[in-house]
Design goal:
Layout: H1 15-35, E1 124-125, H2 138-148, H3 153-157, E2 162-170, E3 176-183, H4 187-198, E4 206-208, E5 211-223
Parallel strand pairs: 1-5
Antiparallel strand pairs: 2-3, 2-5, 4-5
Keywords: Cell inner membrane, Cell membrane, Membrane, Protein transport, Transmembrane, Transmembrane helix, Transport
Membrane topology: Single-pass membrane protein
GO cellular component, one term: outer membrane-bounded periplasmic space
Length: about 230
């Protein structure tokens, strides 16, 4: 196959021409750049703005005027009124002078202040220096409870048993007061335990700093079926 190409469309012949034209354009631009002149701008054309120092505003110092309290009023003048009495005038007022000398037969009355009786508002202690004590000690206390307890028949028939804790207060005189059940088992057993504690004789009262005080005490009563 024969290639048909017009000699006018062939650009290879014009390659050198285009290169020369490009070199000329580039050289022209380079010369134009060298010939380019810049104008100097003098600094006198611009107005320099000086910093204006702001005057400090002086704030006047004001002080609150002290208000003086008004002076106290002058004390009232006391004028002594003297009543001049003639020597011949008799005075109606008479002074009674009692004899303060004490003889052996003179009776002197003394007032003795009685100690205040114990009130219900006295505090109840739980731990004191000297705790209350049953007459004869803890051994006698256990004997008293064992001899005084009567097992309720109803509790025996129903097979109820257990330990009842009874709380009470030993007063300053040793009496047992404010008896109540702290932890119970059965109403019948609780009632019997309260009866036994209420029948106790007087205890030796507890003391705090050598003074008898009210002390709370708890006694366990054990109900056991045999």
């Amino acid at each position: 196959m024969e290639v048909k190409k017009s000699p006018k469309a062939d650009l290879e012949n014009k390659k050198r021409v285009f290169m020369q034209i490009g070199l000329v354009v580039v050289l022209a631009l380079v010369f134009a750049a060298f010939e380019w002149s810049t104008t100097d701008v003098s600094s006198d054309q611009f107005q320099m703005v000086e910093d204006v120092e702001a005057e400090e505003e002086i704030v006047p110092i004001t002080r609150q005027e002290e208000v003086k309290p008004p002076p106290p009023p002058p004390p009232p003048q006391v004028t002594d009124v003297l009543n001049i009495v003639d020597d011949d005038v008799e005075l109606e007022e008479e002074l009674d002078i009692e004899d303060t000398e004490i003889d052996e037969d003179t009776e002197v009355e003394f007032e003795v202040a009685l100690e205040e009786e114990e009130t219900d508002d006295a505090p109840v202690f739980f731990i004191v220096e000297e705790m209350p004590q049953f007459p004869g000690g803890d051994t006698e206390l256990r004997k008293f409870i064992a001899q005084s307890v009567k097992y309720p028949v109803i509790a025996q028939e129903n097979g109820i048993q257990g330990r009842v804790y009874v709380q009470f207060v030993v007063s300053t005189t040793g009496a047992v007061e404010q008896v109540k059940v702290a932890r119970g088992v059965d109403p019948n057993l609780d009632k019997e335990a309260i009866r036994v504690v209420q029948s106790m004789p007087k205890w030796k009262p507890g003391k705090q700093r050598g003074k008898a005080v009210k002390v709370s005490y708890t006694v366990p009563i054990n109900f056991v079926l045999q």
